[in-house]
Amino acid sequence: PDNSLDDRIQAAKRKVGAECIILGHHYQRDEVIKFADFRGDSYRLAKAASESKGRYIIFCGVHFMAESADVLGRDGQVVILPDLNAGCSMADMAEITQVETAWEHFIRAGITDDKGTGVTPITYVNSTAAIKAFVGERGGLVCTSSNASGAYAWATARNEKVFFLPDQHLGRNTGYAKGIPLNEMVVWDPYMLNGGLTNDQLKRAKVILWKGHCSVHQRFLPEHIERMRADYPGIQIVAHPECRWEVCQKADATGSTDFIIKFVKAAPKGAAIAIGTEMHLVHRLATENPDKTVLSLDDNGCLCTTMYRISPQHLCWALENLVDGNIVNQIKVKPKVKHWAKVALDRMLEVR
Ligand code: CIZ
Ligand code: SF4
């Protein structure tokens, strides 16, 4: 291993000083997250970005998170994503033009209008800034996995119907927890004519889910839980709500990455816990809690390959460039998109 890299990162960080804050998502590798001034789930990181005083934010996470930081940051603040290839396969499952097509169809079907009377759109934070803006302009809001329940309450106070993007699992799990039966939720498939739904189905539905998912979390299956319970009697299962409904139903608890961390910390000495989320967080929790048995729900461990793209080399490169006065990989949301995306994100920060 190249141990000089750590020294270079530390030296560059010292040189840029308080002007630069490094944010790290829980799914980052240990070699990267150890340099973060602040770690969190996407809600806490968005909040940290909105409150940050420094001129530069280096975002060790994925593209949509850096976009949100740019939208929420002060004027003149610069957001840097160390590797531009760090995207999110779930966010890529909803394109703004597809969302516009869906909404135009909703208008034709008579369930809403241009302003969102009739349907409140909610987008999970794992989506492009353009979609956040679309939602904000139609009276909707952004949610994260830690405030999805509050976002549903906010949305249904406005309209009975919710359009949830782009994660069908988070949308279904949250709607169900709010008392909406599965048969009152339909799935809009952007690759099918009219989303694959009849007007009657659209009219009767309380929730219209976008057909998107996280390829990492969707790999956890109910069979994994059954096997864990057989192998480790008394084991506690905690799953991220991006997991399938069948998995979340069988788990003992579900919640965001911040929730999962608290869950493991609060468990008594000697407890066994299996976790359905990205493997870097699971491994870190296992190391930090040697008095407990912390396992991945799937023995193979599920890796988010795009989070993994942020390497110490990329972080070093971004920092050393800053020392030289160069800004690399700046993430800049267009001013027109920024306005309504901020409306939707501000609503997210107000809802708990
Ligand atoms: O991208 C994810 O899976 C996120 C945002 C997880 C979390 O709970 O922070
Ligand atoms: Fe996207 Fe899934 Fe990776 Fe989160 S874990 S960044 S939802 S691909």
From TrEMBL:
Its EC number is 2.5.1.72. GO terms for molecular function: 4 iron, 4 sulfur cluster binding; metal ion binding; quinolinate synthetase A activity. It is found in: Cytoplasm. Iminosuccinate binds at H25, S42, Y124, V125, N126, S145, H240, P241, E242, T257. The keyword Iron-sulfur applies. Binds 1 [4Fe-4S] cluster per subunit. GO terms for biological process: 'de novo' NAD+ biosynthetic process from L-aspartate. GO terms for cellular component: cytosol. Its main location: cytoplasm. NCBIfam families: nadA (TIGR00550), PRK09375.2-4 (NF006883). This is Quinolinate synthase. The gene is nadA.
